[in-house]
Amino acid sequence: MTTTTDEILQDRPDTPFLVCAFYTDTYAAEAAQLRASLERTGTPYFLKRCPSRGYWEANTRIKPEFLRDCLQRFAGRDVVYLDADSVVRSPLRLFFDFDADLGVFVAPGDGGFSHRYLTGTLYLRNGPPTRAFVDDWIAAQDGMLLGVDQDSFTAAIERHPALSIGPLPESYVKIFDRGTETPVVEHFQASRRHVKLQRAIKKVRNVVIGAGLLGGLAWLAARWF
Fold first, then answer.
1. Most buried in the list 5, 21, 23, 127, measured by CB within 10 Å?
2. pLDDT tens by residue, 141-162
């Protein structure tokens, strides 16, 4: 095991992939639970603490930059990305022989998901096609303020029609309070507890609109009554 203040590496060279996850300070407790689950299942992993970029949406956009660093640092190893607020319930057998450049859960059209692709669990084959995709994923975030990593992921996918994509089963991205699948990887969506800039802006906008409307009504009342 290699441990520094901000990084923990627990590797097993006999495993063809390495689980990689990053976290900010507000997710430290969740990252500790993920680490414990990886150790219980004998899964090699790399965890890294990253400084917050100030708000939740910006922090999600750390993801492709972190993954590019992992693909470069661990050359020759495939990468399995997990959100820090997930827990591994059983060994990740699917990734010992995964036949695609990229593995992602594709949400059904009628499933009520906010995005087509759920990026909480990802498989990335460490090769030129995947690295080119991740570079475009990062580029797609240029100028983003309110967008999240799933928005830029979708934009990058559209630029790489030849990329080999393997759909992950729902059990590998199981949201704790949705569906009946037995989870292999369970996601707890701690973001529900965090303030999002987009939501805060909407609240301020509604307050301003409401104040303007009340002011207009008061003016009308004074004018006509």
1. 21
2. 999 988 999 999 999 999 999 9
pTM of the entire structure?
0.84
Q: What is the CATH number of the domain that holds 108?
A: 3.90.550.10
Give the 3-state secondary structure of the chain.
CEECCCEEEECCCCCCEEEEEEECHHHHHHHHHHHHHHHHCCCCEEEEECCCCCCHHHHHCHHHHHHHHHHHHCCCCEEEEECCCEEECCCCHHHHHCCCCEEEEECCCCCCCCCCEEEEEEEECCCHHHHHHHHHHHHCCCCCCCCCHHHHHHHHHHCCCCCCEEECCHHHHEECCCCCCCCCEEECCHHHHCCCHHHHHHHHHHHHHHHHHHHHHHHHHHHHC
pLDDT digits (tens, 9 = 90+) for 6-17: 999 999 989 999
